[in-house]
Amino acid sequence: MGEIRHEVDRFLDAEAQRYSKKWLTRLASSTALGLLVVVVLHFAIVLALRHGNLIRVVVLGAILVGGLLLTCALLWMYWRARMRPNDIVPYVVAVLIGSLTVGVALEAFSGGQLLLWRADNVQTVPGAGDPSLLQVERLYGWHLLDSIPS
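-> C-alpha cells emitted (150 positions)
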C-alpha cells in the first residue's frame, strides 16, 4: 500500500511541475506581450503628436476604444471568477488584463494631457518648458505609484 501511495505522490508531483511550468511560460509571454503593447502605444502617440489633428484623433480614439475593451474584458473575468470560484484561470487572466489596462490608461491619459498642455488648455508650472510625452508619463506614473498605500 505504501508503494502505491509513493507512486501516486510522484505522479502528482510530476504533473504539478509540468502544470506550473506551463503557467509560468504563459505568464511570462503574456507579460512580454503586454509590455510590447504599451511600448507600441507610446510610439503611436509620439507619432500622432507630430502630425495633424486627424491622426491625433484617430490614434487617441483607438487607444480609448482599446481601453474600453480591456475594461470590458476585466469585468468579464470578474464575472467568470464569481461563477467558478475554484478555477484559478480567471484570477490569473484578470491580473494580466488589469496590469495591461493600467499601462494603456497611463499612455492614454498622458497623450490626452499632453495635447491639452500643448494647446494651453491646462495650467502648467511656470518655467516648465516645452512639454514632452516622457514628462507627462513620469507625472502620471508618479501619481500611480504614489497611490499605492505603504
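The chain has a mean pLDDT of 77.
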